[in-house]
Task: structure prediction
Amino acid sequence: MLCRKNYKELYKTKLKEYRNFYKTIDACKLKPASGELREYQLRTFDFCKKILRQLDELGVKYFPIGGTLIGAIRNGGFVPWDDDFDIGMMREDYEKTLDFCKNNYICIPPKLLSFAKNNRAIVWNRFLKKYPQKFIYSQTPHHIQIIYGTSINDVVNIDIFPHDNYRNDCSLAEYDRYIEKITQIKYDLDNFEKIIDFYERERMQNPIFDKQGDIIYYGLDNIDNYILSHKGFFNEDMIFPLKKVRFEDSEIFIQNKPLEYAELQYKNCLGMPSDIEISPHINARLGNIFDYRLSSLKNVLFLILRRLCFKNLSEDNITIKKMILEKLKDKFFYKRNDAKYKELYNDLNIKYEFLKSIVL
Result:
């Protein structure tokens, strides 16, 4: 049996080997994934094509974003380690799509969903079992999600993200400050129904939004606002008119200038990311959906700590409070070194073998 020190040393040695190999990879010359991941990607795309046909009939305009956009530009299909399909659309089309979902699909009420770990997987599983092989949707503070399957283990989904028009003289610095404040309010509410209502009031009342504005950017109810750094705004010419590009065995619509759009989302979008993550997009797809009960108390306590940390927030103290919160998180979910390095070593081995399988 390996001792604790051995796991630590094994991990360090393997990490060096992995990084050296990683530097040699050309992201534009990768093979598709294989095995279960590839089967899941193709099954997801078959489902997405049905949804895209419905959107075409509805007359809304949509375009790939995130990993789906990168895959369309760089790989002619899914990024080999990706397992979901993301599209964006302007607010008017987003609202039209939401109305279509309300009238044609089964709804997961927002009040059932929260930011708690595995909450989404548990709720999805319940609805998928109650309504097998039916189109089900949910509106969250981050997107519209349409799902299909018989349980969490075989679910496929498409995510739809809104974009809004903003005031022409809005600066990136002003927008950054605005999103920092919105983030605080969002987590203070911690209720999907209340957050969605709050976003709608902001769009109606806050002058930063302007339907006639030339600036296009993520909507408040778009996760990219909160997980990506803001490098610059989009414009009409960057997105429209849409054109078509090959994606897997079909064609999909894409932005007029897809690379320019992608470069505002990700640094070095044609190269390898700083690292890859090959894990199910739904955090419990492999059936481990009840583990959350073991850690639910920790998550509740951590949420309380987060709220206390961000109490009395100002522009002067937000950076230091974010640093404090990260340190609290590390301490709160600390693992003993032997368990930590064993997990790191095993995860790294999986990634390394996967990378070797997709390199030409």
The first helix runs from residue 4 to 22. The two ends are 36 Å apart (CA to CA). The CA atoms of residues 134 and 273 lie 36 Å apart. Residues 1-26+295-360 form one domain.
